[in-house]
From TrEMBL:
Residues 83-353 form the Protein kinase domain. This is Protein O-mannose kinase. Its EC number is 2.7.1.183. GO terms for cellular component: endoplasmic reticulum membrane. The lineage of its organism: Eukaryota, Metazoa, Chordata, Craniata, Vertebrata. Keywords: ATP-binding, Endoplasmic reticulum, Kinase, Membrane, Nucleotide-binding, Signal-anchor, Transferase, Transmembrane, Transmembrane helix. InterPro entries: Kinase-like_dom_sf (IPR011009), POMK (IPR039318), Prot_kinase_dom (IPR000719), Ser-Thr/Tyr_kinase_cat_dom (IPR001245). It is an enzyme of class 2 (transferase).
């Protein structure tokens, strides 16, 4: 957690302020270092921390709230005995989602909607178990026979409701360019995590339009992004030449990547057998659209957009191989955040640029 501020501190002060009196310059630099330190140690750096999260329990167990012990995932028996459904808070194609209560904790019980979709449901559960980390919603238990999954409840809901959340009086103070850029950094961190996951390179296929993408991610109360729905995460294996297709139906529209669209023209009817497979660069194509939504229209977000212009143009390269990796996008986003915080900390710098 403390590594990031140190490496940031070694960077030279902004070049744009040579005319300032040395004492003033020193004061400004000290001030911005302090601000940056506070910023990064105040939870913002946490999304960029390397290594396992100390608040995580060993695989197969979980902790709710600080200072508590790790409990094993709830079994079928414990779920049916100890979990009480309160009300429905969401429904997708695969799952009905209920706010529920377990030992005075608010939790979420997800149930399969239709037995035809059990393969998706079980794939999602398998992924949720294997990928537990700070990027993924916390698993509290499951019952394969009953097709139920128990996870942590996040009252702010999915990223789809970000506009509404940020317009609530309680969260108005979070509606700033740096909070919003931090969300975009979280989002790209998750894509980076999925592309380099312990299971290999996973593609987020539940992503054929912006609303769909946003509904797969939750906003935690401390304003971080978590991936929640892992039902459609096929594996790319480059060395084995294994590519993926996101479903068997034809995809259309500008939101999906060009290689996901039918390449043989209107005259040839769509045939999945003739549809070429593709790789994880489809996720990179979609980053600028998701980031644009996350950045919103607040004071400073256009300056952020300006700084992200080149990397976003690269994400939209027609040839997937020319698009950057999620890691490269993430590095650029972090550089922009650091740069803009530094500018914001030295009054007047922005006018000189
Ligand atoms: N832990 C949670 N806390 C709060 N809200 C949640 C939680 N889990 C799910 N939801 C809400 O329920 C919605 C549907 O959940 P989920 O994406 O898991 O269902 P799904 O059937 O797999 O969806 P899809 O149709 O995308 O496959 C989410 O978009 C979110 O709004
Ligand atoms: C990718 O394929 C190679 C060769 O078949 C195999 O050895 C490797 O385990 C695969 N990797 C993953 C992550 O599945
Ligand atoms: C969210 O708000 C932005 C403006 O801040 C607007 O452009 C966008 O369309 C809104 N999106 C949704 C899904 O309501």
């Amino acid at each position: 957690m403390e590594k990031k501020p140190h490496s940031v501190r070694r960077e030279p002060p902004p070049r744009e302020v040579p005319a300032l009196a040395p004492a003033l310059l020193l004061a400004a630099v000290l001030f911005l270092n302090g601000l940056l330190y506070l910023y990064l140690s105040n939870g913002h750096g946490s999304s960029e921390r390397a290594g396992p999260d100390p608040s995580l329990c060993p695989l197969g167990s979980f902790r709710l709230g600080a200072g508590k012990n790790c409990s094993p995932w709830l079994s079928c028996e414990a779920i049916s005995k100890e979990v009480r459904k309160l009300k429905r808070v969401g429904e997708g194609a695969v799952k009905k989602v209920f706010l529920s209560e377990w030992k005075e904790n608010k939790v979420v019980l997800s149930q399969l909607t239709s037995l035809e979709l059990q393969d998706d449901f079980l794939h999602g559960l398998k992924m949720l178990r294997a990928l537990q980390s700070k990027h993924v919603v916390r698993l509290l238990g499951y019952c394969e026979q009953q097709f139920t999954i128990l996870t942590e409840y996040h009252p702010l809901g999915s990223l789809r409701g970000l506009n509404e959340t940020l317009s609530m009086p309680r969260y108005k103070g979070f509606n700033t360019w740096h909070r919003r850029l931090a969300l975009a950094i979280d989002y790209v961190s998750i894509i980076r995590f999925l592309h380099g996951s312990p299971l290999g390179t996973l593609v987020m296929c539940d992503s054929n339009d912006l609303a769909k993408v946003l509904s797969q991610y939750l906003l935690s109360s401390d304003f971080h992004v978590l991936v929640n729905d892992l039902d459609a995460l096929p594996l790319v294996n480059r060395s084995a030449g294994v590519l993926v297709k996101c479903g068997r139906r034809e995809l259309r529209g500008e939101f999906v990547a060009p290689e996901q669209r039918w390449p043989h023209g209107e005259e040839v009817p769509f045939d999945d057998d003739l549809m070429p497979a593709y790789d994880e660069k489809t996720d990179i194509w979609k980053i600028p659209d998701v980031a644009n939504f996350l950045l919103g229209h607040v004071e400073g977000s256009d300056i952020v957009r300006l700084h992200l212009f080149d990397i976003h143009a690269a994400c939209k390269k027609k040839d997937p191989a020319e698009r950057p990796s999620a890691q490269e996008v993430l590095d650029t986003y972090r550089k922009v955040l650091t740069l803009l915080i530094r500018e914001a900390a030295v009054p007047g710098t922005r006018e000189m640029l």
